[in-house]
Design a protein that fits this description.
The structure is a single chain. By secondary structure, this protein is mainly beta. The protein is built from two helices and 34 strands. It starts with a helix and ends in an 8-residue tail after the last helix.
Length: about 425
């Protein structure tokens, strides 16, 4: 009996141990870690992990809560959306794959195990969308407005998160808002320009950004229309006959004006006589007219005319004749002859001494040379004769003239009895 009791006790202990082991081996499934929240850009791929311990013979299912749609059960895809799939790493992790994520994929996803009662956990898939400007709800790419009127520019964009809209001028100039307050950047979907001026004409950039690259922009060109204006830098221009002269006018107009020159009620076209040139920049233009080889009939009143669909204006320039400036004297090489020796003076300037008598300079008409007359000697009769021999070709003629003068003087003296012989 005692042996039977001992054997029964041993059997109960063994059964108890086996039960404990079997219970330990058959613990209920549990989640080893939570499902992380995943953020993915539109069009990219995403994966949500579900880690389950002690799954045993139970099944794992994925459900999209927002759509109330069963996506997968165990290894099978239930959804008809081909972008969903499931994979298992033969351990604890079950992965839900979403390819080419769309905005409707955003939301809560549940990983569920079919225990009794059911266990589950939830993760969130965030789908971010780069900004996109909605053209149909925004101002068209080109708008026109009359000067001093008001205009409102609109720019709308979608995306996730909601994009922020800001405005800039393409040329970097400040934007005039709120009664002429100037800012480099303006935030908001609407940009109101009050009493717009021609200086505010140009391209405005609407930029949408939400932290998801890339940012996008739209270019809106604002044309400010006004009638032509002209100003003339020089209304009186003088030039000598036989020369070329250029006159000019500055114009402003939008729409772009037709500009031309008129003289004597005739439009001037480009010819050998007239050259025309127009340089344009935005709403400004610089007109130039060149008149070549001026003649008597070219002097008078010239008009520059500018006209567009809003009006017409003109400027006037008076062209008059001025004398031709005289040519500057040419430098002459100085030469002197003294004591039958020739000395060349190159680039030497000689000052005249105050006590020294000025010398007579004789110029030969044939050779255009300059000579210095030698110093004179007193004859005692109030006449002077050149000392030494003459070196110029006209020396003999000068000597003869001097002798004739002396002879005349002597005859005069004798005739007036200035010399009376002694008694």
């Amino acid at each position: 009996m005692r042996r039977k009791a001992d054997s029964r006790y041993i059997a109960v202990v063994i059964i108890y141990i086996v039960t404990i082991i079997s219970q330990a081996m058959t613990d209920d499934p549990r989640f080893a870690e939570p499902i992380p929240n995943v953020t993915v850009a539109l069009g990219r791929d995403a994966s949500l992990p579900c880690v389950v311990e002690n799954l045993g013979t139970y099944k794992v299912a994925w459900i999209h809560i927002d759509r109330q749609m069963i996506l997968t059960i165990h290894r099978h895809v239930i959804s008809r959306i081909a972008r969903f799939s499931v994979s298992h790493d033969n351990a604890k992790t079950w992965l839900l794959h979403v390819s080419s994520v769309q905005q409707e994929d955003r939301g809560y996803y549940m990983c569920q195990v079919n225990t009794n009662p059911m266990i589950s956990q939830v993760g969130y898939l965030q789908v971010v969308v780069p900004p996109n400007i909605i053209d149909v709800e925004s101002t068209q790419s080109t708008v026109a407005v009359r000067e001093n009127q008001n205009i409102s520019l609109t720019c709308k964009a979608d995306g996730f998160p909601t994009p922020k809209i800001m405005w800039r001028r393409e040329d970097g100039q400040a934007i005039s808002v709120e009664r002429r307050k100037k800012v480099n950047v303006y935030d908001g979907e609407k940009l109101n320009l009050t009493r717009i001026s021609r200086t505010e004409m140009g391209a405005y950039l609407c930029i949408a950004t939400n932290g998801v690259p890339p940012s996008v922009s739209k270019r809106i060109i604002v044309d400010v229309e006004f009638s032509p204006m002209i100003w003339v830098p020089n209304q009186l221009v003088g030039a000598p006959a036989g020369t070329d002269v250029t006159i000019d006018c500055h114009t402003e107009a939008y729409p772009r004006a037709i500009s031309y020159w008129v003289y004597d009620n005739v439009m001037l076209l480009p010819t050998k006589k007239y050259g025309t040139e127009t340089m344009e920049n935005s709403y400004r233009a610089h007109m130039k007219l060149t008149v070549r080889n001026l003649q008597t009939g070219d002097f008078g009143n010239y008009r520059c005319i500018s006209k567009n669909s809003l009006g017409e204006t003109e400027g006037s320039i008076r062209l008059y004749e001025i004398p031709m400036p005289s040519a500057p004297p040419k430098a002459t090489e100085m030469k002197s002859y003294s004591n039958k020796e020739y000395v060349s003076k190159r680039n030497v300037s000689r000052s005249v001494i105050q006590d020294e008598k000025p010398k007579v300079i004789m110029v030969s008409s044939s050779e255009k040379e300059i000579f210095h007359q030698p110093p004179e000697e007193d004859t005692g009769l109030g006449l002077s004769f050149p000392s030494g021999s003459q070196t110029s070709d006209g020396s003999d003629m000068q000597m003869k003239m001097m002798l004739q003068v002396v002879t005349v003087i002597f005859h005069y003296i004798l005739s007036t009895n200035l010399f009376v012989p002694p008694n």
